[in-house]
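User: I'm preparing a small set of examples for a lab meeting where we compare how different chains pack in three dimensions. I only have the primary sequence for this one, and I'd like the structure in token form so I can line it up with the others. Please keep the answer compact; I'll paste it straight into my notes.
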Amino acid sequence: MTEPRKAPIDKVVKPIQKFIQQEKSGGLILGISVIVALVLANSPLAEDYYRFFQHKFGFVFDGKTYLEYDIHHWINDGLMAIFFFVVGLELKREIVAGELAKPRKAMLPIIAALGGMIIPASIYLLFNPTGEVHSGWGIPMATDIAFALGVLYLLGNRIPLGLKVFLTALAIIDDLGAVLVIAFFYTSDISIISLLLGFTFLIIMYAGNKMGVRSVLFYALFGIGGLWIAFLLSGVHATIAAVLAAFTIPANVKIKEDIFVSRIKKHLARFSRVDPNDNIPTLTNDQLHILEKMTTNTERAIPPLQKLEHAMHPFVTFIIIPIFALANAGVSVLDIEPAQLFSTNVAIGVALGLLVGKVLGVMGFTWLAVKLKVAPFPTGMNLRNLFGLSLLASIGFTMSLFITELAFANEIFKTQAKVGVFIASIIGGILGYMVLKKQKAKTA
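Assistant: Understood. Below is the structure token output for the 444-residue chain.
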């Protein structure tokens, strides 16, 4: 049997697909986006760069404009809602059948994540106990999973699988913590009517799940057209709606694995027995009918939750997060005096909160949990690589920048916080890589 001839487009598509499938690619694209934003913000194009994100658009109906926000707002409340939706899907998958499904196995990353949130926030508050700057305590609590895992996967087989799983679980729990912090502490005036309307849509989606509705269109219609818009108007940050919506997506299969295998084998046997359509590029009616049945069975064997997560992850990683970075990472330092940059302790609090707080929190709480025999070290983990992972956890780009936009209205404070995030993330990433690189590569 000869291999099918490759189409010319494959020479373009295949390398792109290979790049997208690599774990480190997301962190690389995010890093490039941050650099581009910084260059634009400190170039002659700076004024045009900032003005672009201030353009407003909305929806006009009967002469009235609804949902009119600037592009920056649409990115942070709209596109980032999709990011949080995928975070919610990952959380539910981990809780249903992943690293968080078994309580004892989940305890160590949960404890590590708690330490990695409590200690950074405490260090920030130590430097900024009162005033408007006080509200930035949530900024150093977050870990950027794309960057952290990107650095980790650069090390290849030097890193045991258990460490990668541990960091992934820690970052996912960290994201959940950030979501809860946003929900309870970074909200504006709340409209009870809009909030109740949002929860009505949430109940409809939950009921659809229990009734066996598996249509993505159903959840998109009520999730975006109902739940997300209601939360957007309620004062509770709209990204919370995305996480709640994700938890209503079915995680079960219609047919079990053994039944699926049996049916596919039967269909393949039937397909091989039908008269072939020799030298003609189309299929016979019998062949088409059998393949349709195989497709239907395949659809029923895949949980909608995993199907959505798998389909949306590249879009979030390579489109949404880079756009978010372009819109939020542009810090202009040309017109800021060093004294003004450190006129408050925001930058210091954020930088030390991430770089020192994350390391002390993640490493300290993990070591304590192991010593108290709450949970054992994952296979392949020791104090050295735990220290390296803790340094990688101090990379806080995406979520830290996101919380910065919610925490402060003052542009100076925002700039100071972003500088703190950049300093800590760069130092933490480099030091984490250097510590973990000293591990010997595993031999096959």
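A couple of notes for your slides: The chain has a mean pLDDT of 84. The two ends are 33 Å apart (CA to CA).

User: Perfect, thanks.
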